[in-house]
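My hope is that you will study the record closing this message with an eye to the fold:
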Amino acid sequence: MATYRFHCTNGLECLLDAEGQRVRPGESIRRRAAQVAEGVRRRFGGDWSDWSVTVHDLEGRQVLLLPFGAEAAGMALAA
C-alpha cells in the first residue's frame, strides 16, 4: 500500500491532509480524490467550484489534480 496526501485548494487557501491516506494497489486514486471533494462539500457547504483536490505522494510529488465536480464531468489532470 502507498500513502498519498489529498490536499484541497483554490490557489489561495488550502485544506491540508497532514496524515495522508493509504491506497491499496489497484484502488483508484482518482475515485478517492472525488470522495474527498464530496466529503468537503458536504461537511462545509457553500460554493467549492474554484477548488481542486491535489494528490501528492509522500515525497511531495503531485500525482493528480482533480477539480471539485470533475468526476461528474469526466475530467482529471494527471501530474
Remarks:
- Residues 45 and 53 are 16 Å apart (CA to CA).
- Residues 2-78 form one domain.
- The radius of gyration is 12 Å.
- Residues 29-44 form the longest helix (16 residues).
